[in-house]
Amino acid sequence: MKNLVHKSIVLLGLSLLALDLHAQQPSFYLIPQVGNVNLSIDSDYTLSNVKLNEDNIESGITAGLITDSHLMVELSILHSDSIDFFDIGDTYNFSQYQLMLGYQVELNEHIRFIPKVGLSFWDLDGEEGVFLNPGTEATSNLDGNDLYWSLGFDFPVTERISLQLSYANNGYEFGRTETTSFGVRFEF
Fold first, then answer.
1. Which domains are assigned to the chain?
2. 71 within 8 A of 103, measured Cβ to Cβ
3. What is the pTM of this model?
4. Using only C-alpha atoms, what is the Rg of the chain?
5. What is the pLDDT of residues 25-54, one digit of tens each?
C-alpha cells in the first residue's frame, strides 16, 4: 500500500508538471552539492545490532527543469560514506536516487524558498570492520524506496547562477537521515 501511495503522488505531480511544460519553455539546471548527513540506523539493521548514529559527508548532483510558473522537477544522485581511515569500525554507504517535484517561491529579489517532495530510491550497504573481528567480515545490503521531502533557500548571484542551502529530515525503513547541504545552481 505504501508504494501505491508514493507512486500515486509522483504520478499526479508529474501529470501537473507535464501540463505546465507543454504550455511553456522550461529552463534546465544542474546543481553540484555537498553537505552533512546524520545517518541514524535502527539496531535491527546494523551489523552489531546496536543503534548507530553517525555524521557523514554527502555529495551529489541534481539535474532539473523549472517552468515560468516556478514548478520544478528534479532527479538527484546522492552518496555518503562512513569515515574510517584504517577499516577498524563498521562502515555504511548510503546512496539514493531522488525524483522530486517542487515549487519556487520568490520571497524577494534576493531570496527564493523551495519546498520539494518526491521519492527516494535508496541503497544502504554495511561492512564489518576488522578490529577485534576474527574471521571473515560480515556485510549487509538493504534497499527500498520512501517518500522524501526537503526545504531550501536559493540566493541568486547572477541571472543564471545561484547558491542553495537545503534541509531534509526523512524516515526510511532502516531509520532516519537529517541532511543539510550546500549547492550551486547553474541554469541553462
1. 2-187 (2.40.160.20)
2. yes
3. 0.85
4. 19
5. 789 999 999 999 999 999 999 888 889 999
Interatomic CA distance for residues 127 and 157, integer angstroms: 42
Question: Across the chain, where does the E strand assignment appear?
Answer: 27-41, 52-66, 71-81, 91-103, 105-108, 111-127, 139-156, 161-171, 175-187
Give the sign of the dihedral formed by CA 100, CA 103, CA 109, CA 110: negative
What is the end-to-end Cα distance of the chain in Å, rounded? Answer: 39
Q: Note the helical H segments in 56-177.
A: none
Q: Which residue has the cell 577485534?
A: 132
- The residue count of the chain comes to 188
Query: HSE on the CB side for 120, CA within 13 Å?
Result: 24
Cell readout for 144 is: 527500498
Strands 27-41 and 175-187: antiparallel
What does the block give as the cell for 120?
527516494
Which residue from 165, 169, 181 is spatially nearest to 120, judged by alpha carbons? 169
Span 107-151, pLDDT tens digits:
999 999 999 999 999 999 998 877 766 667 788 999 999 999 999
